[in-house]
Amino acid sequence: MAKHKRGVNTICTHTGEVRDKQFNGAVSPIYMSTSYAYEDVEVKRYPRYFNTPNQEMLCKKIAALEHAEEALIFGSGMAAVSTAMLAFLQKGDHVVLQQTLYGGTINFVTKEFDKYGIEYSFTKGWETKDFEKKIKDNTKLLYVETPSNPLLTITDLKKVAKLAKNHNLITMIDNTFASPINQNPIDLGIDIVIHSATKYLGGHSDILAGAIAASSEHIDRIWNTGINLGGSLSDFTVWMLERSMKTLGLRVERQNKNAMKMAKYLSKHKEVSNVYYPGLKTHPGHEIAKSQMKGFGGMLSFELKKGIDSEKFVKSLKLIKASMSLAGVESTILSPTKTSHALLTPKNRAKQGIKDGLLRFSVGIEEPRDLIEDIEQAIKRCG
Ligand SMILES: *Cc1c(COP(=O)(O)O)cnc(C)c1O
């Protein structure tokens, strides 16, 4: 028995390794079989049943990182989101969702739920009282995202969890932006934790995957829906993800530091009007973030002063890539108005606080001075 719990980087590197019993290699072998024996076996293995050797072992790593009893890995973040919600909601049920959510999740709910006869309400803001106001007799689930996309709003997880317990509701969180390194919602009373593993868990912008961590009881229920929806991840990508996750702790630690430096630099810049980063004391959610996060993450947003055209600024960057998605080791930047939130009307965007010049910055692991130099030269070109 170990004297103390494994540290986070030890879990990242070692938990859920598949032993190479034949050759004693240092890394997990990869089992590509979609066909396994069914006679005289304890488990009937099949990739869509989430139980191939590589799938099962990687789930242990994710569960350990999220302080959960069990985990499941999916073919994408949206496969995880949709399977989790459909496992717990049926015809006539109602779900309360935070207004500031990932665009794909909003799309899933608004385009699919009517067909299933599932009712939904979006909160007005991201405070506990906003969730409470929308709870009805048939509400079954509260769905949270914190820090949120793109303005990094912070929701108090302990309070939302308590509210849910009082009303006998299930709670789910999209923990993608924080990563398990910075935030462990299960410790705060949240039931089900979802990740787009395409982002921090993968971390190199080359893997599409999702994950869910929860109690064995909840995972069992999600598994039963998951095998019908068929959103499993193929073993080659499972293996890639295991490899990537070995450096998760190191990457995120560096991204936390870099983002803090960039947030401080940008907030002092005379051509920048607003910086949204939960690590800044000026951020309205700073105190809550400090109490429930171990690091403030690698994501931030900012607005340039009126005279500077944000489109031209983005095009003038040489090192920081104008690119969709986020959380890679390389820094990327995007305009939510033109990408993730393009389908919303300008009025609806304004309601969410998203101005046209807003830029979302995913800070990578580069040297901060190189990122600063890039931003300086881009602003000069726009001046
Ligand atoms: C990207 C993302 C998703 C969706 O994940 P995919 O892997 O693209 O399906 C869900 N939630 C958040 C917060 C995301 O950033």
TrEMBL record:
SUPFAM superfamilies with a match to the protein in the record: PLP-dependent transferases (SSF53383)
UniProt keyword terms in alphabetical order: Pyridoxal phosphate
InterPro entries: Cys/Met-Metab_PyrdxlP-dep_enz, Cys_met_metab_PP, PyrdxlP-dep_Trfase, PyrdxlP-dep_Trfase_major, PyrdxlP-dep_Trfase_small
A Pfam family reported for this protein in Swiss-Prot or TrEMBL: Cys_Met_Meta_PP
Keyword hit for Ligase: no
Cofactor or coenzyme needed: pyridoxal 5'-phosphate
Family: Belongs to the trans-sulfuration enzymes family.
Name under which the protein is recorded: Trans-sulfuration enzyme family protein
Organism whose genome encodes this protein: Sungkyunkwania multivorans
